[in-house]
Amino acid sequence: MRETLIAGATIGGFAGLLFLLERLLPLRRARRPLAGRLVVNLSYAALTYAAVALIVRPVAEAMLGWTGRESFGLLHLPVVPGAARPVLAFLLMDLTFYWWHRANHQIPLLWRFHNVHHIDPDLDVTTAFRFHFGEIAFSSAFRAAQIGLIGPSLWAYALYEIVFQANTLFHHSNVRLPIRCERLLNRVLVTPRMHGIHHSQVREETNSNYSSVFSWWDRLNRTLKLNIPQAGIVIGIPAYARAEDNRLLSTLAMPFLEQRPFWRREDGTTAAREPAVTRGNSSCLAE
To answer: Can you tell me the distance from the alpha carbon of 277 to that of 197, in angstroms, rounded to the nearest whole number?
Structure first.
């Protein structure tokens, strides 16, 4: 219990620091008033916390206990050296999260719920809390399969969770880092500019950059797209760009209603990128 409180306070403090830095060093200009977005996103933070506490955490703890008792999972195979297991656990947890995130974009039922995260008209650290309770419920099944497949120890799982949550806050943030610094950091980690492209209204850009902690999963799976300048990115989903779409009750009900053609604006056009804008190397992070 004490460790959980310390971890929660640390993550909360990190979120607060990023929120302050966003005010001082913004990467992208805001399109909507912050106050209204805060009401929605912080409401989701409370709902997400409740869903995790009631569904995801009990499922994860039960599976961790079972795999530990039964020595089940890839990491328990005799060919895996004991000293390598924590490192492999971290890598496999992150790789499977890449595929889970990708599945949320490619499977229509999952996308209905994940889309609530993407229709936020601005991207900042508060967006990292904006996940529909339906998506959280589906993720509990993923967690059970993930832990059952890998078989991580409790402390290896806990370590990954802390790093995963911290980097999720970081790469959703609207903090402008020096481009040279971010390019260097992005060789290993997902960074704000990289993830900003993932939240673009251009379909091909949204369907890229799925990694959570390590950026190299997108490099290995050829889903990396870095050559999009942040000044040219419009955040959100074209069909859900009206102010009323982003009210709390509207977003909660949205997955259960008839879906609009996601990538089409109200005027019937689709968001596209001029070829000249993306002429550079797709693996080089643009300013």
So the answer is: 13
